[in-house]
Design brief:
single chain; alpha+beta; Transferase(Phosphotransferase), domain 1; two-stranded antiparallel sheet; disordered N terminus
């Protein structure tokens, strides 16, 4: 018999007069609230047409599109097997998302159990993930405008500031990357993929980790060396994500974040940062927009500083976004990026690209 746990406990740490915070994670109507509160496994199976429409796969299982009898669309994540890891990841995401409510975070509607199977039901994101646009083979014709990209970047930052500081739960996501950034109907971003997230002790911004988790290419180098995880680990991954959003065709074609970082660093060192910007964006955007994009590249380089202590907080990053004429520190360029391109140095990546999970409540495009 199916057992169901309903996420009706919402812990809100709310600033006054802030429209970023939301009071409920449900679908927005009383009828939907009633329906979801009576969810069981058979309801999930019927909504997903017996799990026939897969819209995402990853290390944690699969995600399916569903439709309730009311017509509301949902996304259902089904965790793989009954392993200790699966149980831990499921419980972790339920615990954390039940306590976090913000317009730039994915809304978890219901968790459900059926024998050894675990399910999470989310709001449905009609514009898929940010990754689907970055990796689109026809990106030249589907390039998002800088205005849309800027709004996406700022929305991600606001979501991170909330989990790092404003929620007062001091959550480190540990897997920020484009496939965990979902886009709603208006292309507003929502952070998903909280299986690996970690709540710190009250007032602490870092902690020790015995196992390195996350996605290669987005992992904080200091975290990989020492096992010390902090909010600055998310800042690093956020910086890499910014670069992937604005990257040029040359950088994108490698599909490797380490090569992308090396390319951006070398361009910056030669005073040629404009060549980091995607060709279509560089040709179509106005001069003032290009200047703003270059500033965002500058900020991204500050976020991926190998020394976590000198990386900015997300709150500082948002200040830099909003105050265009505030001077920025010079990024620290590592020794391996100081050689000129004329040396014909081989671009062998020190890390291979990979994923921890591409599991997200998204749509197929």
């Amino acid at each position: 018999m199916a057992g169901t746990s309903f996420l009706d406990t919402v812990f809100r740490r709310k600033k006054k007069n802030s429209s970023d915070f939301i009071t409920t994670g449900f679908l927005g109507s009383k009828s939907s609230f009633f329906l979801l509160s009576n969810f069981d496994f058979e309801t999930i199976r019927a909504a997903t047409d017996n799990f026939s429409h897969v819209i995402g796969r990853g290390g944690f299982g699969s995600v399916y599109k569903g439709r309730l009898q009311s017509g509301e669309e949902i996304a259902v994540k089904r965790f793989l097997g009954s392993s200790t890891r699966s149980e831990r990841d499921f419980s972790n995401e339920v615990e954390i998302l039940s306590k976090l409510k913000h317009k730039n975070l994915i809304h978890l509607l219901v968790s459900a159990l059926n024998k050894n199977q675990r399910y999470l039901v989310y709001e449905f994101m009609p514009n898929s993930s940010l990754q689907s646009y970055i990796s689109d083979p026809h990106r030249d014709s589907h390039q998002l405008s800088w205005e849309m990209c800027r709004n996406i970047v700022q929305g991600i930052a606001r979501g991170l500031r909330y989990i790092h500081e404003e929620s007062q739960l001091w959550v480190v996501h540990r897997d920020i990357k484009p496939s965990n950034i979902l886009l709603d109907l208006e292309f507003k971003p929502k952070i998903a993929g909280f299986e690996l997230a970690r709540m710190m002790q009250q007032g602490e911004s870092e902690g020790e980790s015995t196992v390195i988790v996350g996605t290669i290419g987005f992992l904080d180098p200091e975290y990989m060396r020492t096992g010390r995880v902090s909010i600055k680990s998310d800042v690093y991954a956020f910086g890499v994500t910014i670069l992937m959003i604005v990257e040029s065709e040359r950088a994108y074609s490698s599909g490797d974040q380490e090569l992308l970082i090396e390319y951006v660093m070398r361009c910056w060192n030669r005073g040629e940062a404009i060549y980091v910007i995607h060709e279509v964006m560089r040709e179509q955007e106005r001069e003032d927009s290009i200047s703003e994009i270059l500033r965002y590249i500058h900020i991204a380089l500050l976020c991926i500083n190998e020394n976590s202590e000198t990386r900015p907080t997300i709150d500082k990053v948002l200040h830099w976004f909003s105050c265009f004429f505030t001077p920025l520190p010079e990024p620290t360029i590592g020794d391996r990026f100081l050689e000129e391109a004329e040396t014909n140095l081989s671009f062998s990546p020190s890390l291979s690209p990979g994923y921890s999970s591409d599991m997200s409540p998204t749509s197929s495009r």
